[in-house]
Design goal:
Chain A: This is Trm112p-domain-containing protein. The complex is a heterodimer of chains A (131) and B (255). Helices cover 29% and strands 19% of the residues of chain A. Chain A is built from 5 helices and 4 strands, in the order αβααααβββ. Chain A has a 4-stranded antiparallel beta sheet with strand order 1-2-3-4. The two termini of chain A are 24 Å apart. With 131 residues, chain A is of the alpha+beta class. Chain A has a single domain, classed as N-terminal domain of TfIIb. In chain B, strands 3-2-1-4-5-7-6 form a 7-stranded mixed beta sheet, sandwiched between helices. The longest helix of chain B is centred in the middle third of the chain and has 16 residues. With 255 residues, chain B is an alpha/beta fold. Chain B has a single domain, classed as Rossmann fold, CATH 3.40.50.150. Chain B has 9 helices and 7 strands; from the N terminus they run ααβααβαββαααβαββ. Classes of the chains: A alpha+beta (131), B alpha/beta (255).
Amino acid sequence: MKLLTLNFLTCARKTCKATAASFPLHCREVELEQVEMDPNPLFIKNMLPRLDWKAMKGLTQELGLPQLPNEAPSEEELQGADGEPTQVLNDLHTLLMETSVVSGKLVCGNCEYEYPVKDGIASFLLPSHMV
Amino acid sequence: MLPTPSTSHVNYDQVYEPAEDSYLLLDTLSSASETAFLQRRFPQHATSPLVVEIGPGSGVVLAFVTAHAGRIFARRNVGTLGVDVNPVACAATRQTVQTASASARADCGVFLDAVNGDLTTAIKPGSVDVLIFNPPYVPSESLPSLPVHDEHDAADARGSFARDSHLLSLSTDGGIDGMEITNRLLAQLDVALSARGVAYILLCAQNKPEIVMAQVRAWPTRDASMLRWNVEKVASSGRKAGWEKLCVIRIWSDR
């Protein structure tokens, strides 16, 4: 599961949705892999405004990945004067699109429920008494 | 006609096989009227839209939208995500989308993942721009129970006929009027959709589409900036002597 996907996921429990702590889910005991993917610079550029930068920065800290700056890069930092993608953009591609969670747990910061990830697929199905 | 993604790798004992309903969605999403609507709704300068298919099954529809993003949205910076209650379908969807994308590199959008979950419950509120749902719409006496991930390991080992038919029933059985699951999804739309969000939902005649559409029009608006909920029938098939079998409705809001 790509790190970018975590920008769109939250705890599946209704009671957690209203709390800020249910996003982002926290990675615990995760195994990561790098999977090469065709770069799509425009996608990174146009997705960036939708990215919860603080949440992503927290995730990279939890995962022991290279630190992100405090502020999201500006549009000028993503594209060089020659129109080519900059290193900043390429690094974001590597982080968001190519870094994947193969296995481990995604934990809600509010209820502490652990959602398992197996073979790159996260499961958000809850036992019926918790729905 | 855009090519239909291959699903030949999918085990149809455990995952719904693409059928007339799936193909109606492909035709709808690539029709001149819907591509024009989507391109107006998500213009080039707007942030990248997120397409979420609920219950992708084999992944044929999500693969089609991902592989042909350039034709459907007139932009390739479109993200796609699948959420299926059947874990076997999640793996099938991932493979179908990746294969289709690899053979349409000049035209394809960006597939994020397939996630195992119940409708939109795991999706961050307000993040879905285009929601696609081919629901379990067949009227049935009861609803199958949802799989629980604690059971996964045991279930994988079981590999039994009982497990297979349970997984398949999740893709077909819709309870009363075939609407029980669709009604749950409709109730989640207000929270799941972004301000510019659009939902495409497939219905069959027994679902009483006219009643569903009247209910949607009567939904309360989310906030002061929202004028009204709109719903329109954008496609139908199986028309015989005025009796229509399947249709696709589009739900969106005006601001």
